[in-house]
Design goal:
With 368 residues, this protein is of the alpha+beta class. It is built from seven helices and 23 strands. It is flat and about 110 Å long. Keywords: Bacterial flagellum, Periplasm, Signal.
């Protein structure tokens, strides 16, 4: 087994190619300070459901909002007893994009909050959407496109997807603008999505070379400030246009991400492993119950007796013998060697965890 491991390991090393560096546009690495979206939320009512709405006995808030809507429309329902099954209370969420103007339309998501079974075919009644400051910025209304299907019979019920949530494309209209005047900025602050000192310094150098003067200054690992007067741009918008398409080679921390549910392993090109020895094996424990029922003799007064019978077995798979990984080995080379040995992804994740715990894996190890 040790010989097989080193054979596969040498093949992986000989086939490994150095990763080519790639440049990325600045617009894909940073966010411009002040240019951001704002979350919106509202509470509304969906009507027109085919008997799949809230049970008003279990969702009294649905009856309350329905009464309020009908009273605003001039229908007096005070003291009336109504139990329709074609309405549902929902929460409506959306994002107000930057520079959205009055009359613009945005997409919204509708989610049931009661015991409704499905929102398929429902219509959202006019619902105001509020931001964090409590002000109404948009009004939503429209037919819901549900994200699932439900079928039910006398003794069985099948649900595919999530029928209690849906979307309304362009279902909200902007009624208020965010008070932000982009033209009055004297400096631009570029916020890196993944803060890194090297990447920030490269962005500063690229911008200064492009404008021919020292207009950009790196403030910290996550911020680069651009002086608009030194940049020579006619407006902040023109400065962003001149900056965002410049190419920069980003520098990121080495990272390994594993998903234990699916056995997925994703790693960066800069992950390295120090000198370490690896040994891995599988232990399987099987316990089987096969009880035996003993019947009494005919015409006797005896009782049936159940005799327990248990079989226990322990199996040990030799797995990978003790193998040594040289210093400075690339993680992709180790993974290639383990794949050549037929190691399963879940066992591979356990090996990586052990290498990280031993302090030999030089990267951020993220488990999802």
């Amino acid at each position: 087994m040790l010989t097989r491991f080193f054979t596969a390991f040498v093949l992986a090393v000989s086939c490994a190619l150095p990763a080519a560096s790639q440049s990325v546009r600045i617009k894909d690495l940073v966010e411009v300070d002040g240019v951001r979206s704002n979350d919106l939320v509202g509470y509304g009512l969906v009507v027109g459901l085919n008997g799949t709405g809230d049970g008003l006995r279990n969702s009294p808030f649905t009856e309350e909002i329905m009464s309020n809507i009908l009273e605003r429309l001039g229908v007096n329902v005070t003291g009336e007893q109504f139990r329709p099954r074609n309405v549902a209370a929902v929460l409506v969420t959306g994002k107000l994009p930057p520079f959205a103007r009055i009359g613009s339309q945005i997409d919204i998501t509708v989610s049931a909050i009661g015991d409704a079974k499905s929102l398929l075919g429902g219509t959202l009644i006019m619902t105001p959407l509020n931001a964090a400051d409590g002000q109404i910025y948009a009004v939503a209304q429209g037919t819901i496109i549900a994200g699932g299907v439900e079928a039910e019979g006398e003794a069985a019920r099948v649900v595919q997807g999530v029928p209690t949530a849906g979307v309304i494309p362009s279902g909200a209209r902007v009624e208020r603008e965010v008070p932000f005047d982009f033209t009055q900025l004297s400096t631009l602050r570029l916020a890196l999505r993944e803060p890194d000192f090297t990447t920030a310094a490269r962005i500063e150098d690229v911008i200064n070379r492009a404008v021919g003067r020292r207009a950009a200054t790196m403030l910290d690992a996550g911020t680069v400030q651009v002086d608009l007067q030194r940049s020579g741009a006619r407006s902040p918008a023109r400065a962003v246009v001149a900056i965002e398409n410049l190419a920069v080679e980003p520098q990121r921390r080495a990272r390994v991400v594993v998903d234990q549910r699916s056995g997925t392993i994703v790693m960066g090109a800069d992950v390295r492993i120090s000198r370490v020895a690896v040994s891995q094996g599988n232990l399987t424990l099987r316990i089987e119950e096969a009880p035996l029922a003993i019947q009494p003799n005919p015409f006797s007064d005896g009782d049936t007796v159940v005799v327990p019978r248990t079989g226990a077995l322990i199996e040990e798979d030799p797995g990978i013998g003790l193998a040594e990984v040289p210093t400075g080995t690339n993680l992709s080379e180790v993974i290639a060697g383990l794949n050549a040995l037929g190691v399963s992804p879940r066992d591979m994740i356990d090996i990586l965890k052990s290498i990280k715990a031993a302090g030999a894996l030089h990267a951020d190890f993220v488990v999802m």
